[in-house]
Amino acid sequence: MSYVDEIISQVTEKNPAEPEFHQAVREVLDSIRPVIEKNEEKFRKDALLERLTNPERQIKFRVPWVDDNGNVQVNTGYRVQFNSAIGPYKGGLRLHPSVNLGIIKFLGFEQIFKNSLTGLPIGGGKGGSDFDPKGKSDREVMAFCQSFMTELSKYIGADTDVPAGDIGTGAREIGYMFGQYKRLRGVFEGVLTGKGLSYGGSLARTEATGYGLLYIVDELLRSHGNDIKGKTAVVSGAGNVAIYAIEKATQLGAKVVTCSDSTGWVYDPDGIDVAALKEIKEVKRARLTEYKNYRPNSEYHEGRGVWQIKADIALPCATQNELGIEDAKALVANKVTVVAEGANMPTTEEATKYLQDNGVFFIPGKAANAGGVATSALEMSQNSERLSWSFEEVDRQLKGIMEGIYHNIDDAAKRYGFEDNFVVGANIAGFEKVLDAMNAQGIV
Ligand code: NDP
Q1: Residue 396: CB partners within 8 Å, gap ≥ 6?
Q2: pLDDT at 339
Q3: What pLDDT is stored for residue 206 in this prediction?
Q4: Ligand 1 pocket: which of 262, 263, 348 to mutate (most atoms <8 Å of CB)?
Q5: Within a 10 A sphere around the Cβ of 107, how many other Cβ atoms?
Q6: Cβ neighbours of residue 29 closer than 8 Å, sequence gap 6 or more
Q7: Residue 353's pLDDT is what?
């Protein structure tokens, strides 16, 4: 059996009931096969892939907090510090009832290669909890965040591990966690990113993932003699990534006709009204059913359906495995040309293959949504310098980083004879740097 296949089955066997982690490992290892096969005996002897697929450390802890009725609630907290070969661990904190160790490991594993692709010195990690901020009062969210940070603070620091936001962890949660860290440790340092502007946050961090997604799509199209102007796009999600993807797509001259949340989706033939969407989701924290009050011409549907709408560009920006084979078939039938992942692993393996086999340009999340973590790393730099850069400066660097990522993954794909296969290109380009650093640092 090849070394890669051996490790894929070992990971599946040793980490039962973690299907998302298996899926992420399979996807990465399958596409770095050409690199491994060039030097298989050495890598096997060094147990390189065993070290790559086993987190350096995983922390699981109890998070007790008191709700508004005076009852004690207990959630589970996680931090997986996956790989620090190229820098301090960096990756978000997900607060969602679906969170379990397997999901955090899948996200942490992906984060290693994504962070490497940014070209910045950040290792891979991820964390979170099965706590659901939805429907909780501000005081309850604060009680949870303080309890969560009381334990997490023992393992993180500006030069060791710098968490950020993710699903369910926005500016409010980061603020409460930062306050508790400062109080416990007595230091004001850049231990979290996604902070508010008044206490060390970076301009353009809120916009970064969505904007970055559009910068890489635009660079792909330009490299193929085309651009975004005049294109129609379908977007899923209505959170941080989706909102700013819609905003940038609109600024670049595209028309985005859909968005969605966990209960339903909107079709707006005139183009999504970003200001209305921001008010509904960022200010009122309400459901998308409200969108019709702002745009009477739009339609609201329960359930899922955005991938059935005809478009040139599809941007899944909600959550993992939200675009399956039937969705891919509908997109291909409707002649989509680009699918780029704003969310982490939103496209199933089968759907990804179908899209690629049918000539659709497919940019995986670890490249397409890397603008968020890249800008987080720029926030870390600003914190270290004790300076704040202008919006234009951060946005300019973000654009440069995303264009660089496109060319990096495109070159890697071509070098190994997989032209236009950006899954292979992203995995190889991300892996090469980590491999080099791991080799240089000996058996650790
Ligand atoms: P948010 O919590 O801001 O938004 C998530 C959106 O997806 C919401 O509209 C939510 O609906 C919807 N959603 C969440 N879970 C589900 C589900 N199980 N089924 C259907 N819809 C769902 O998160 P972000 O926008 O920050 O993150 C979205 C994705 O992007 C995630 O995969 C995240 O890991 C990834 N990502 C985020 C980055 C960032 O900088 N924020 C950086 C890189 C990747 P509802 O409103 O009903 O909750």
Answers
A1: none
A2: 98
A3: 94
A4: 262
A5: 29
A6: 4, 7, 8, 36, 49, 53
A7: 97
135: left (phi over 0), alpha (psi -120 to 50) or beta: left
Q: What three-state secondary structure class fits 83?
A: strand
- What is the atom index within ligand 1 of the atom nearest the CA of 205? 40
The residue behind tokens 């661990």 is 89
Q: Which residues are annotated as catalytic?
A: 126
Q: Which two tokens stand for residue 440?
A: 């240089």
Q: Which residues line ligand 1 (CB under 6 A)?
A: 165-168, 209, 237-242, 261-262, 317-319, 342-344, 369, 372
- pLDDT tens column, 140-157: 999 999 999 999 999 999
Strand 264-267 with 258-260, pairing: antiparallel
3-state SS assignment for residue 89: strand
pLDDT in tens, 68-102: 999 999 999 999 999 999 999 999 999 999 999 99
What pLDDT score was predicted for residue 227? 93
Tokens of 16: 């039962």
Percentage of the chain beyond pLDDT 70 is: 100
**CB contact at 8 A, 88 and 57:** no
Q: How far apart are CA 246 and CA 236, in angstroms?
A: 10
Kindly state whether residues 246 and 325 are assigned to the same domain.
yes
Mean pLDDT of 186-206: 97
Give the global pTM.
Answer: 0.94
**Domain end point (choices 189, 223, 248):** 189
Which protein residue has the closest C-alpha to ligand 1 atom 21? Answer: 262
Ligand 1: atom nearest CA of 263 is: 47
Instruction: Please list, residue by residue across 47-67, b when 16 or more beta carbons sit within 10 angstroms of its beta carbon and e when fewer do.
Output: ebbbebbbbbebbebebebee
Give the structural domain span for 330. 206-363
- 8 A C-beta contact, residue 26 and residue 68: no
Q: Give pLDDT tens digits for 339-356.
A: 999 999 999 999 999 999
Angle among Cα 167, 168, 173 to the nearest 5 degrees reads: 125
Pairing of strands 89-95, 161-164: parallel
Domain CATH code at residue 345: 3.40.50.720
Q: How many domains does the chain have?
A: 2
Band the pLDDT of 312: cuts 50, 70, 90.
very high
Q: Does residue 422 form part of some domain?
A: no
